[in-house]
Structure formats: C-alpha cells, structure tokens
C-alpha cells in the first residue's frame, strides 16, 4: 500500500520517462481535467512545470501541472491514480509547489463547484475568493477561484503594518462577523446600540480583523446574492496574512485539543483559529462558550488570547481610565519601576525588541498591547533611570493559579545588565511563591544570552515552551516534602516530571544528613525549607545602614540614594553580598548554613538613626563562605561584593592574629512580617537576651521564627 510517507515528488522535463504516464493519467480523466494538447504537456515539461508523485517502487501515481504568470503560479491539473487516492498524493504535490513558489505572490486555480472539492482545497490552505461562469456554451458551470497567498503586495503590506503599529488588532470569529453583518444590513437594527464594538471611541483603540479562512465559510452559502454580499462586507475588514508553513502544524495541535476536550467544532472553525494563531494578532474575539472555556488551553499552547468582546472592551475602557501608576524606587536605588502605559509600545520596542534574534517589531508591539489590554491577567513593568533611560521590561502573566508566567523578560545592554537580570529573576521567584504559586515559567523566546545564563544558574529546567522553576513556600520534613512533591506532580503534565525525580532523591537519608546537599535541594525549590536537615542556623545582628545597603530594600527605601547610605544599584541588585564582623565569639559559624538577620536598634550614629522598624529579625539568607583573614586581604578579595570602605573594615575588632571575619551570603528572603525583639525573646525563652554576636539556634526555633516571619 502506498502511504503519504512513501511518496516522493520531483519535477520532470520533456525527456522524462514519466511524461507518458502523466499523459495516460490525463487521458483517463480528461473530462474532469479539461482539454490539453500533447504539445502543451511537452511545453510545460520543458519548463519543468510538471511535478510527479512517485511511490517507493518508482511508479508515477500522480501529477501536478502548473503555469507561471508574473507574480502568480496557477495550477492547471492535479490528478492522482485511483488506487492511491485518500493516501496524501495530491497533498504531497501541492505542498511541494508551495515550497518552490515561496518567494512569489502565491498560487491560484479555478475549480468547478459541482466537483465538490471545496473541503480539499480548504484543507490545503487555499481560500475561496469568488465565483465565475465557465466557458461552456450553456454557461451553467460555476468555477470557484481558489487562492493561496504567500506574500502581499508591498503597498498592502505597508497598510497592514501601519494598522498593526497604530492599534491593538483583534481577529473576530465568524459569530462576531455575522452579528456585525446583520447590523450593517439592518437585519437587527436594535442590536447596534448593544454591540459595543461599534462605539466610536472603540474604533480609536481597536482594529477588528479577519483572516482569509472566512471566505471559505462564506463560500459554503448557496444563495449567490447573499454570498457576494458577505464577501463584500468581509473586504471592509483588515485581512491579516497567515504563515502558511505553520498552519498545518497548529491545526494538528488544535485537533488534539478538540479530541481531548470532546469539543464539537467544525474544520472551518479550527482552520480559522489556526490562521489567527499565525497572524500578528494575539487576540481572538468570540462569543462561543465552548471556545471561551478553552481560552486557557489555547493561550498555553499558542499565546493567543480568546476573549469575549464585552470583556475586552471593558478592559480597554479600564485601561483608558486607569490613573498613571506612581513610580516606585527600585530596591532602594535611584532607579524607578513604573507601570507601562498604553501608547508607549513603539518607544519601548526601540529599546527591547531583539532584532539580533530577528524579532518582528510589529509583533512585539502587538504582544505588548495585548498584555496592556488584558490587565486582569498581565502586569507590565519598566525599570528606568532618573533620566528616563529604560533598563528592563518585565511582563508577569497570572492566568494560572499555580504558575507565574514571564512572557517578556528584556534587559537592555548596559553595565548593570547581568546583575539586574539575576535580581529580576530572583525577585520573580519570590513574587511567585508569595502569591502561593508553585512554579515560575519564563516563556520569552527572545532572551539575551546573559539572561539565559542567569536562568540556568537559578535551577530553571528547560521545557517545551520555556524555562520552568519550582518555588514552593513550604516548611516540611524531607519525608513530608517528598510526599508533597509527588502529589503535586500528579496534578500536572509531563513537563513537571523533574519534580518527581527530586521527590525520589529526598528519600535518600544520606542527602538529608549532608548540610550542603540539603542546601542545594532547598535552593532548587527555593524558598522551601527542609526542617529535619542538618543545616545550622544562626541569628546575626547587623546595623541598619549595612542591612539597607546589603539586602534590605525596605530599609534602603527609607534613605535617599544620594545621602551616602542609599543602595548603589550594582550592589542592591547583587544576589550575594559580604558582611564583615569581629572574628571573636563566632560561635562555630561556618558554611553552609542559614542566617536570620537581626537589624539592631543601636549604631554609631545613634539609636537606629534615620531608620524605622529596627530591632527586628527582617530576613533569612544562605551562608556560602566564612573567611578569617587580615582586613586588607579580605577587602581586596571581596571589594566588589561589599559596601564597606577599607577604613570601615579597619575599625572592626581584630583577634590576636590581626584577623576579622568575612561572611559571604546570598539569596536573601525578606520577611513579610519582621519579628520583633519581644517575640524573639518569647520564642527563645530568654528574658535577658543580648544579641551582639552570632547566636546559634536549633531546628525547632528556626521553624518557629521562619513561620512567624512569613505569617
């Protein structure tokens, strides 16, 4: 049996032995294919404009004859041997023609309507663009013009591009099209006031678009007058071009979604959605309840937002009325983070569209517009300098309860780029966990190399649609955590299987008793904590000014960036830091371990001078290294990580060897509810508690304090 995979397609010339077989096939079906003199076949073959389909034994089982006229290619004959029909021969021939005609305007053909091949041509990606009468004497035959367009005319492409640049473009489904058509033809005049899409103010914000597949739906209408009327109305919309190469791929995925969800939907509607996916629009308007129920699934697979028109317009209205967000200081620096506003898309694209990876500027702007309009699902944030220079763009997607998506993560090329990227990724993980989500996924396909490196360093796992990271806000024993992870995986798809492997590792007791292995596991699912691990924890006092510069952005925001203690951006964004203290009374502090930072009330300038909320445990960090050495050597080694001047370090009390201690720490988690000194005394059961040096605490105390800080 001949199958689709066994078919080979090639062009023949007028000396090919297959030419005789081609003519034999034509003679057998000349009534359907139409008249063609023998010389016509030889001429087309001489121009290598006959494609033949060969089976695995080298037999010619079909052919396609075409002509080339100016910018278009026209199919004259398409024929396959009856023994091979239904096995993909015709499709193979047409697909080959698509490939060799890519740089042209496209492919055309005329086919008699009474042959009932509309379904076939539609499935090949062609659209019906009009009917003409045949040339027979009786003139009763009707021919349908079928078109597959590769490239628009330059002027038309420019017009479409201008529309895409100026407004959000949304593709309307057939149900919306028919509703608007009825209003246009006064079939339902009362609905005009009810249809918000026709409001004047909406027209200034939104372009309603269609794609070519709508003409195939219109072609199914028997009444010629009605058919022509709908075609004329359809031509009043912007018709977005489709990427033909990806059309079939998307269609196959949609077929699976249809089957999995037991959805009753016709092939036309699936093709229409498939074309919409490959267009430069990212919004699909429909009132079809079944499609709306699949909105999350379609967005997950294709990043196409399926929305009810009323909901979209409501969000457009809110976007227009929403007051500008007040700028916020970013991590206590002179940098600001602001909410992206509608109308900034072109300006932002000039900074963050990744032309090196061939990202399309128009598509970037359309995506950003869609995120701004769907403000109930997406949050768009800019990081900028005080001179309005843009440093980063972050878009957060919250359409899934258990996952924070980052569909855009762009960091401009500047001296802060790698450091800022790492900071944004870390803060995003914390944001996701604080919102009680289990995962963070970065789906931006246009990431810079240094951003990808930062993602990998943070233990993100490469999955089909991006980079996935588990961020579990749980405090459990290793056994409880293993069970928790296994239950979690059972609720999600295959891309989360890496969590199951981690659950298996947690059953290995040797891992739990090894402090470094336990720290590695905690970092992998940060901010989770393993309560029965052998990770030591210390409470360490720190003065407010050093805390504000090293890790506490809330304290840093209490100080002006230029007052001498405000956080410098290159330090505030650093994931790791170094803290110096006296070497004496270290109480066995060594890496790896955890630190609970107690921000003290007293310092040289006075009682917590210039700061509020001091005298609290405010954060938790991991200790990566503890080093004892002379101040000069430590300063030289850790200068890039510290905020200290060499004179500050020299004032620290030295031991008999002239040494002080440097604590290199990382991944600091600020507590939502800092723990007061009184609460600390209560948990430790020490009324006369004095915190002047590292204070080692047991596992139970750590769990109580950590839970208090995150209560």
Model description:
The protein is of the alpha/beta class and 711 residues long. The chain folds into 5 domains: 146 residues, Gcn5-related N-acetyltransferase (GNAT) (Aminopeptidase); 159 residues, Rossmann fold (3-Layer(aba) Sandwich); 149 residues, Gcn5-related N-acetyltransferase (GNAT) (Aminopeptidase), CATH 3.40.630.30; 56 residues, no CATH class; 174 residues, Hypothetical protein (Archaeosine Trna-guanine Transglycosylase, Chain: A, domain 4). It is built from 31 helices and 30 strands. β15 and β16 form a beta hairpin. α12 packs antiparallel against α15. About 2% of the residues have low confidence.
Shape: elongated
CATH topology annotation of the largest domain: Archaeosine Trna-guanine Transglycosylase, Chain: A, domain 4
Residue-averaged pLDDT, rounded?
Answer: 86
Query: How much strand?
Result: 15-25%
Low-confidence stretches: 321-326, 560-567
Q: Count of DSSP helices?
A: 31
Structural class label: alpha/beta
Q: Write out the CATH superfamily name of the largest domain.
A: Hypothetical protein
Q: Roughly how much helix do the residues carry, as a percent range?
A: 25-40%
- Taking the alpha carbons of the first and last residues, their distance comes to 68 Å
Radius of gyration of CA atoms, rounded to a whole number: 33 Å
Compute the number of structural domains: 5
Strand order of the largest sheet: 13-14-15-16-17-18-20-19
CATH class of the largest domain: Mainly Beta
Total DSSP E strands: 30
Query: Largest sheet at a glance?
Result: 8 strands, mixed
Question: Any idea what the CATH architecture of the largest domain is?
Answer: Roll
């Amino acid at each position: 049996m001949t199958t689709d995979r066994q078919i080979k397609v090639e062009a023949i010339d007028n000396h090919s032995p297959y030419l005789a077989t081609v003519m034999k096939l034509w003679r057998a079906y000349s009534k359907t294919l139409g008249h063609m003199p023998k010389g016509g076949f030889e001429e087309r073959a001489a121009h290598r404009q006959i494609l033949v389909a060969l089976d695995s034994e080298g037999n010619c089982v079909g052919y396609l004859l075409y002509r080339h006229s100016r910018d278009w290619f026209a199919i004259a004959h398409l024929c396959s041997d009856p023994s091979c029909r239904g096995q993909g021969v015709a499709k193979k021939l047409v697909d080959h023609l698509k490939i060799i005609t890519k740089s042209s305007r496209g492919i055309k053909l005329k086919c008699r309507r009474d042959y009932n091949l509309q379904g076939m041509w539609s499935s090949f990606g062609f659209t019906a663009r009009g009917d003409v009468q045949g040339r027979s004497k009786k003139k009763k035959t009707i021919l349908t013009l079928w078109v597959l367009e590769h490239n628009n005319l330059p002027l038309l492409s420019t017009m479409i591009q201008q529309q895409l640049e100026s407004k959000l473009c949304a593709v309307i489904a057939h149900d919306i099209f028919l509703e608007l058509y009825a209003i246009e033809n006064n079939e339902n005049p009362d609905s005009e006031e009810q249809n918000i899409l026709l409001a004047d103010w909406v027209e200034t914000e939104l372009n309603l678009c269609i794609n070519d597949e709508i003409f195939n739906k219109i072609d199914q209408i028997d009444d010629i007058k009605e058919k022509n009327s709908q075609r004329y109305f359809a031509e009043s919309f912007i018709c977005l071009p489709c990427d033909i190469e990806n059309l079939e791929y998307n269609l196959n995925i949609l077929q699976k979604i249809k089957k999995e969800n037991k959805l009753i939907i016709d092939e036309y509607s699936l093709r229409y959605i498939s074309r919409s996916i490959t267009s430069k629009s990212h919004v699909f308007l429909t009132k079809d309840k079944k499609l709306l129920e699949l909105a999350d699934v379609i967005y997950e697979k294709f990043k196409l937002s399926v929305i009810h028109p009323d909901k979209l317009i409501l969000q457009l209205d809110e976007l227009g009325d929403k007051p500008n967000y007040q700028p916020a200081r970013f991590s206590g620096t002179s940098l600001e983070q602001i909410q992206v506003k509608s109308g900034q898309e072109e300006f932002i694209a000039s900074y963050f569209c990744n032309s090196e990876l061939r990202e399309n500027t128009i598509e970037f702007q359309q995506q950003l517009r869609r995120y701004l309009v769907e403000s109930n699902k997406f949050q768009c944030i800019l990081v900028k300098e005080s001179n309005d220079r843009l440093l980063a763009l972050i878009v957060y997607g919250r359409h899934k309860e258990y996952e924070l998506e980052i569909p855009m993560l762009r960091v401009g090329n500047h001296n802060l780029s790698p450091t800022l990227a790492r900071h944004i990724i870390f803060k995003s993980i914390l944001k996701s966990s604080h919102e009680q989500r289990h995962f963070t996924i970065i789906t931006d396909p246009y990431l810079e190399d240094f951003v990808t490196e930062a993602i990998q360093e943070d233990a993100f796992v490469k999955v089909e649609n991006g980079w996935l990271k588990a961020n579990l806000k749980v405090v459990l024993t290793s056994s409880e955590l293993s069970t928790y992870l296994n239950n979690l995986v059972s609720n999600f798809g295959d891309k989360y299987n890496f969590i199951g492997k981690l659950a298996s590792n947690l059953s290995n007791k040797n891992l739990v008793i090894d402090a470094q292995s336990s720290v590695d596991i905690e970092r992998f699912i940060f901010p989770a904590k393993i309560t029965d691990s052998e990770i030591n924890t210390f409470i360490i006092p720190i003065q407010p000014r050093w805390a504000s510069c090293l890790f506490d952005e809330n304290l840093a925001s209490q100080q002006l960036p230029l007052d001498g203690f405000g956080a410098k951006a290159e330090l505030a964004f650093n994931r790791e830091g170094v803290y110096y203290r006296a070497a004496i009374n270290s109480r066995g502090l060594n890496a790896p371990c955890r630190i609970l930072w107690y921000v003290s009330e007293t310092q040289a300038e006075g009682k917590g001078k210039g700061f509020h909320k001091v005298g609290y445990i405010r954060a938790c960090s991991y200790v990566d290294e503890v080093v004892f050495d002379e101040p000069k050597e430590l300063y030289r080694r850790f200068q890039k990580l510290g905020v200290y001047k060499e004179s500050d370090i020299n004032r620290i009390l030295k031991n008999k060897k002239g040494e002080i201690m440097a604590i290199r720490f990382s991944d600091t988690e600020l507590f939502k509810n800092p723990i007061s000194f009184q609460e600390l005394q209560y948990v430790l059961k020490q009324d006369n508690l004095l915190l002047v040096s590292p204070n080692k605490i047991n596992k139970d105390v750590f769990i109580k304090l950590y839970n208090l800080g995150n209560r």
